[in-house]
Amino acid sequence: MKKSQKYYETYIEELEERIIDLSLKLKATNNLLADKATKHNKLISALTHNLKNPIGIAYSFSEMMSENAENYPKDKLEKHLEIVKESSQYAISLLNTFVTYHQVNSANYLYNFKLEEYTELINNVINNNMLLLQNKHITVVKNLPNNAILINIDSEKITLVLKQLLRNAIRFSEPNSKITISVTTSSTAITTQIIDEGIGISKNDLANVFNDFFVVNTYDVDKKKCIGLGLSIAQNIIKKHNGTLSIHSTINQGSTVTITLPICK
């Protein structure tokens, strides 16, 4: 009888402990779901807020032109059509970037890792952005190893990161400036630096540059409106490669973006 009673007491204690453990896990899961829901709502709110302005501008000017189409002065028509075009382009760009952001942050986003020649990938990114560089008369200085560098990456996604970072450097650089792209290797990692002579970022803003929809400047030096998702996308991709992405910057002197990717042997 005593053995039976002892058994039940032990069983009840173990059951209580399991219930407590499951309750704690359930609470943690609920908190995680609540956090995700809050983040999702904030993202949708930010997306809506950022879309309202360009869509509203495009609609207002379109309505104004359609109401007085026959008597609209040509010079004013051209100017207002350009405003509609730029507002529409920004809205489309924002939606496309948000789709990429959503894909990158999805648990089902697949990565296709395989050995790639990294120097060739860097050169392709530079060549594909040569027109943007030439339009602003920006000189690119390349400090790349002469030997081939093989690294296990998803080339499509790393190309997306490099394109984003190079275009940031171009956007926030003045005409006739310089962008330096350096690649160095060690026994364990490949380090890429993109160094510009642009407008720079303050220390206070540096702490937030990887936050969703955060923009240091509403417009770049070419007066193009910024979105604020590119660095968040880039950081997520680099983390999936077990690498790091960091930025050092000085106001009115420029920024240095550093990517470190591990070499798997």
From TrEMBL:
Protein origin, superkingdom: Bacteria
Reactions the enzyme catalyzes: ATP + protein L-histidine = ADP + protein N-phospho-L-histidine
InterPro entries: BphY/WalK/GraS-like, HATPase_C_sf, HATPase_dom, His_kinase_dom, HisK_dim/P_dom, HisK_dim/P_sf, Sig_transdc_His_kin-like_C
Keywords (A to Z) from UniProt: Kinase, Phosphoprotein, Transferase, Two-component regulatory system
Domain Histidine kinase: 46-265
GO terms of molecular function: phosphoprotein phosphatase activity; phosphorelay sensor kinase activity
Enzyme Commission code: 2.7.13.3
Pfam families noted in UniProt: HATPase_c (PF02518)
Any one of the GO CC terms: plasma membrane
Enzyme class: transferase
Protein name in UniProt: histidine kinase
